[in-house]
Specification:
This protein is mainly beta. About 10% of the residues lie in helices and about 35% in strands. The protein has helices at about 105-115, 140-150, 215-225, 260-264; strands at about 5, 20-25, 30, 35-40, 60, 65-70, 75-80, 85-90, 95-105, 120-125, 135-140, 165-170, 180-185, 190-200, 235-240, 245, 250-255. The two termini are about 25 Å apart.
C-alpha cells in the first residue's frame, strides 16, 4: 500500500519549505501552511517567479503562540510575536485574498535583504492557496524518478521543486493520476483529488538557491505533453472531506474505483 514519505509546508509563501513529521489536516488544509505572503510597495504579490532567492530564507512559525522567525543566509534572524496592522487585499491569479499587514521586524528584514520595499501579510488559514485549486496536493516518488529518467539523470528529481503537501511511495510513475475523482484515506484524513497540478517556471529553480538549473518544463512537455487546458501536469490536488492527522509513514488508501461509482 502507498505510504507518505514526506510532508512539506510553507509558512511563508515562496520561502524555504518546512518538513514536519506530522500535520493536522482540516477543511482548509494545514493551518500553518501559506499563512503569510509577501507584497511589494504597490501591493502586488512578490514570489519566486519574481525572485527565486526567496527560498534561501528559512521560516519557523508556531501558530498557537503566533511566534514567527525568518532566518536569512547572512546569519541574521527576524523574530517575534505576530501583531497585525492595516487590512490589505492581494491578487492571487485573479482571486482576491484578504489579509492584514504584519507589524514587527519582518518587513524591514525582507526589504533590506532583497533590496526593495516589501511587506509581510497574514491571511486566514487556507486562503493563500495557488489559484484556489485545493487545500491538499500529492506527488509520487515514482513520478519524480521518471522525470529524472526522461531528463537523462541518474538520481531522482528533487521533489521540493514542486512544493507539494504530500509525497508518497508505492505507486507506478504518475500513478497518482488514477486517483482523480476518488476518495482516499490519508492517515486519519479523508480527501478527494479533483485535478492535476499544472506546472510553471518555479519548478526549474534549485530549491536551495532559487537559481534555475533544471528545465523541468521542457522534459514534462516532451514526455507528458499539455492537457486540454494547456497545462503541464505533474501531481494532483484536491479537497479535504474529513479532517485528521497525517504522519510520515501513514498509508494512502483509495476507498472506491471512481467518483461515479461512489455516487451511483
Amino acid at each position: 500500500m502507498p505510504t507518505v514519505t514526506r510532508i512539506s509546508i510553507a509558512p511563508v509563501k515562496g520561502l524555504a519549505l518546512v518538513h514536519p513529521d506530522a500535520v493536522e489536516l482540516d477543511l482548509t488544509g494545514v493551518r500553518d501552511n501559506r499563512r503569510f505572503h509577501i507584497v511589494d510597495d504597490n501591493g502586488r504579490r512578490y514570489g519566486q517567479i519574481r525572485n527565486g532567492r526567496l527560498v534561501q530564507i528559512k521560516p519557523a512559525y508556531d501558530p498557537d503562540r503566533e511566534q514567527l522567525a525568518l532566518a536569512f543566509p547572512d546569519g541574521t534572524i527576524a523574530e517575534g510575536t505576530v501583531e497585525l496592522g492595516e487590512e490589505i487585499t492581494t491578487d492571487f491569479y485573479g482571486r482576491p485574498v484578504n489579509g492584514r499587514v504584519v507589524l514587527g521586524p519582518w518587513s524591514d528584514a525582507l526589504s533590506s535583504w532583497l533590496d526593495r520595499p516589501l511587506r509581510l501579510v497574514q491571511s486566514a488559514p487556507g486562503q493563500a492557496v495557488d489559484r484556489g485549486r485545493g487545500h491538499v496536493s500529492l506527488l509520487s516518488e515514482a513520478s519524480l524518478q521518471e522525470l529524472a529518467r526522461q531528463a537523462g539523470q541518474d538520481e531522482s528529481a528533487d521533489g521540493r521543486r514542486f512544493r507539494m503537501l504530500f509525497h508518497v511511495d508505492g505507486l507506478e510513475p504518475h500513478g497518482e493520476d488514477a486517483w482523480l475523482r476518488r476518495r482516499l484515506r490519508i492517515g486519519e484524513a479523508l480527501v478527494r483529488f479533483r485535478g492535476v497540478v499544472g506546472r510553471c517556471a518555479i519548478t526549474t529553480q534549485n530549491p536551495d538557491t532559487g537559481i534555475p538549473d533544471f528545465n523541468t518544463l521542457r522534459f514534462l512537455n516532451e514526455y507528458r505533453g499539455l492537457t486540454a487546458k494547456r497545462e503541464l501536469p505533474f501531481g494532483v490536488y484536491g479537497e479535504v472531506l474529513e479532517p485528521g492527522r497525517v504522519r510520515v509513514g501513514d498509508t494512502v488508501e483509495p476507498l472506491e474505483l471512481s467518483f461515479l461509482d461512489a455516487t451511483a
